[in-house]
Amino acid sequence: MEDSIEVMLQERNSKLLYHYRNNRVLTFAAGAIFSGLYGLWAMFCLPGLKVPFRLKLPFLPSTKVQTENVMKLLEGRQVWLADLGAGDGRLVFSASCAGFQCTGFEINPMLLAYSRGQAWWRGIPHPRATFVKQDFWKTDLSKYTNVVAFLAPAVMADLEEKLLKELPVDARVVVCCFPFPHWPHSCTIGSGLDQVWAYNVSSVRETRDTTSSFRAHP
Ligand SMILES: C[S@@+](CC[C@H](N)C(=O)[O-])C[C@H]1O[C@@H](n2cnc3c(N)ncnc32)[C@H](O)[C@@H]1O
Fold first, then answer.
1. Any idea of the CA torsion for 93, 94, 97, 101, to the nearest 10 degrees?
2. Is 199 in the pocket of ligand 1 (CB under 6 A)?
3. Total tally of structural domains belonging to the chain
4. Which of 32, 81, 102, 114 is in Cβ range 3.0-4.6 Å of 92 for a Cys bridge?
5. pLDDT per residue over 73-97, tens digit each?
6. Do 40 and 77 sit in the same domain of this protein?
7. Residue 87 CB less than 6 A away from ligand 1
8. Virtual CA dihedral for 86, 89, 95, 97, nearest 10 degrees?
9. For residue 202, what are the domain limits?
10. Is the CB of 107 under 6 A from ligand 1?
């Protein structure tokens, strides 16, 4: 009798051990899958490590309507266009089809590889759609007469300052979703997530000059 209880206890213990081991394997497997998926998401969606945390922006592709709205606000404009944070290159491709010579700035290497592959696949030649691995905050943008940006509210004030210093007087800036906090816009179209705003640098400078001279001589 004692023997059979011992055997039963031993069997029960070995079953528990089996379950425990199995659960541990399952937990490790789930952990590994989760970490792998997170790593993959981070590789595609998060910008490089060198960007300060305050200026870090994830990848969020613009919608078809948003892209169409950007192109409407760039109608009649020509030549050089910069997309600040090109993502998978969709805005650059639309603009290059409209005849612009586009540079897409992107710091995420996976997105960069993807957009370069797309450009090659679609047969878009180099000067019309160029993708560069460059932090646009550290790039001189003075050559661009057209700038497109789909970023985040937290960085729009910093971007205003940078663009106002660097862009030529005939430049136009089109931003998606999040307007500049201080610049007066020249026009806007769309609503909700698809809303885009256009700003003419000449008008922004004029407004700034008038406001500062008014402050100097009230
Ligand atoms: C909201 S997504 C917009 C993507 C694309 N322009 C579109 O409309 O679909 C912002 C992109 O900016 C990139 N980005 C963020 N900071 C950057 C920086 N300092 N220099 C270059 N690219 C940056 C991110 O990796 C991300 O792909």
1. -60
2. no
3. 2
4. 102
5. 999 999 999 999 999 999 999 999 9
6. no
7. yes
8. 160
9. 64-211
10. yes
